Amino acid sequence: MSRPQPQKRATVHDIAAAAGVSRGTVSRVLNGGYVSAEARAAIEAAITEVGYVPNNAARALKMRRSQAVAFVTLEPHSLFLDDPNIGSIMLGANAALSLADHQMVSLVVESSRDTERVARYLSGGFVDGAIVVSARTQDPIIKVISDLSLPAAFVGHPPELDRTIPFVGIDNVGSARAITEHLLTGGRRRIGMIAAALDRDSGIDRLAGFRAALGPLFDEEMVADVPHYDYGSGVKGMRELLERDRSVDGVFAASDAIAAGALEALREAGRSVPGDVGVVGFDDSTWAVRCQPQLTTVHQPAKEIGSCAAQLVLRQLRGEHPDPGGQLLPTPLVLRDSA
Amino acid sequence: MSRPQPQKRATVHDIAAAAGVSRGTVSRVLNGGYVSAEARAAIEAAITEVGYVPNNAARALKMRRSQAVAFVTLEPHSLFLDDPNIGSIMLGANAALSLADHQMVSLVVESSRDTERVARYLSGGFVDGAIVVSARTQDPIIKVISDLSLPAAFVGHPPELDRTIPFVGIDNVGSARAITEHLLTGGRRRIGMIAAALDRDSGIDRLAGFRAALGPLFDEEMVADVPHYDYGSGVKGMRELLERDRSVDGVFAASDAIAAGALEALREAGRSVPGDVGVVGFDDSTWAVRCQPQLTTVHQPAKEIGSCAAQLVLRQLRGEHPDPGGQLLPTPLVLRDSA
DNA sequence: TACGGATGTGTGAACGTGCACACAGTAGGA
DNA sequence: TCCTACTGTGTGCACGTTCACACATCCGTA
């Protein structure tokens, strides 16, 4: 079976022939240079006439530049379907890249088959750089990027193995600490946490911040450990906390979805919020405002995270070396009704 | 300021030199052909030694094939942040393309600036085809794809202007009719609808199905028209229905999120579900199972939609001409507790 | 011996682009 | 008059790959 030939498209040669000039002159019209007014007019007419569109593949080959940056999502299953922020991060990155006239291409790595193919894609000259979003810190693709020394930026914690790649994220420890302190200043004394995803840095750090805020008041018993950042986990986690200590008067949920689940469990148990129990969440996602009462939570600047990561890549493409330390964006507390 | 040269990477020439053979032989090892065992061994050793990665841009230029397919999301703002299915559709498409060893690259069109850049990208040889997901049926990018005669497939309704491009979707009219009939067989007689997004085909069709199911029972007054498929719209829409007729005993919500909002409004009004009022949704998203009671709804086979769209593109890449009529995937009713 | 097929290898051209270079004409100043 | 600077144009090459073709060797058979 012979593959169908994609239809022949006009090239600079065709334009040159149509306008009665040479390829070089056409190139100068497209890319700037000395061209006479007549030649320019003839060429521009020819371009629209033959419907010319430049061939990116050829340009990328010659220029070693594709004007494209990959947005690589590792473990999309958990990220795309659970994480309320991933969409906003993408849009933020796209907006920033768009302003710099770069194309964002989003790649998804789900299987080992994907890993290999994406690695090939990244190394093949189709993209000039990469933004990597990963749920966990270790992934084979990260080594590939590191080996290729492809200009890159991480969203979230960078992998231990390559500290030379810059990253952008939020201060999970500090934010968790701040929101827990809000519960304390509200007079809560028996405070529990529904901690999720303790196999990820975000989960670990939020727990660490909680512990730091409570200091001597911290009680291991008052931490319910659930696997995911989702609603169901919140219901289960809150029931567990109530079972362990019915005098609980404050709860820090590791995400808004969890907080929403906690509200449901508290309603079941006949507790009022914020009267009997103060509840705070994390993310400032759409969950926060659709709950009854609306959630006091930590705002994640998702759009800014995306655009910041894009800037980190663009800066490297301009030849600058960003300090590898990474960048933590501010996470303002959003005070609503739940605590 | 001079642009930094991306570091020089090994090419087939380097491998040939290292292995003491010619470029042609290297190419044959990579792409198949008669090669002696010694030559093959030497070349494979050389490949790993110099860390060769093939240059996709050069390959795409020569082969006129990039082995990549674009996943274009028009109006990502509403889709990414509102639509619970878009992530699953993407993953479904990615899985199908992955099996055919094609790379899915997701592009996002948000501004007019994006439109132009993505059009260039699509026409530049970086992708062999495109899957287009659009909230609305009209968009400038569609004309571009049509003009380029790029192998493509639409998710949802195809634009009127080009019926030659195949599409995949669900039968919104039939599904809405079926779920409304479920309310009728449950004995409900005063049935309202919270209709959303009446500027899109999906919204229009769901309303049409509702009307068809009710027949003479249909009452214009019992349709609350809300702008979006979201929770807040559901709350508002349900309040409106209750105000118009307190005897309402059944509600078809145009999405699960809306249904969730409706449940909240009914709780406010002291109505029990499904006792006083039966509520059904649409999508079978995560909303459906996190509601109290869990929603009876229409299952959208999002993953299958994605993989089906991918197949439509892949088939064209193989030179087949899929019937342009389009494909509607089955949408089973999921019976839970809300009606 | 001569021939044809199967197996193995090297060479040249082409994909479409951008850039370095060569070249030509004009104008102005030493 | 010659040299330089500026504007404008054409040609050749390179980017890294694949493929068609030419050539070379070996074996079995007419």
From TrEMBL, chains A, B:
Segments traversing the membrane: none
PANTHER family registered for this protein in UniProt: HTH-TYPE TRANSCRIPTIONAL REGULATOR GALS, LACI-RELATED TRANSCRIPTIONAL REPRESSOR
Cited Pfam families: LacI, Peripla_BP_3
MF GO annotations: DNA-binding transcription factor activity; transcription cis-regulatory region binding
Assigned keywords, A-Z: DNA-binding, Transcription, Transcription regulation
Biological source species: Actinoplanes campanulatus
Record's protein name: DNA-binding LacI/PurR family transcriptional regulator
SMART domains the record matches: HTH_LACI (SM00354)
Region listing for Disordered, in residue ranges: 320-339
HTH lacI-type domain boundaries: 10-63
Alphabetized SUPFAM superfamilies for the sequence: lambda repressor-like DNA-binding domains (SSF47413), Periplasmic binding protein-like I (SSF53822)
Record flagged with keyword Transcription regulation: yes
Gene3D superfamilies: 3.40.50.2300, lambda repressor-like DNA-binding domains
Superkingdom of origin organism: Bacteria
InterPro entries recorded: HTH_LacI, LacI/GalR-like_sensor, Lambda_DNA-bd_dom_sf, Peripla_BP_I
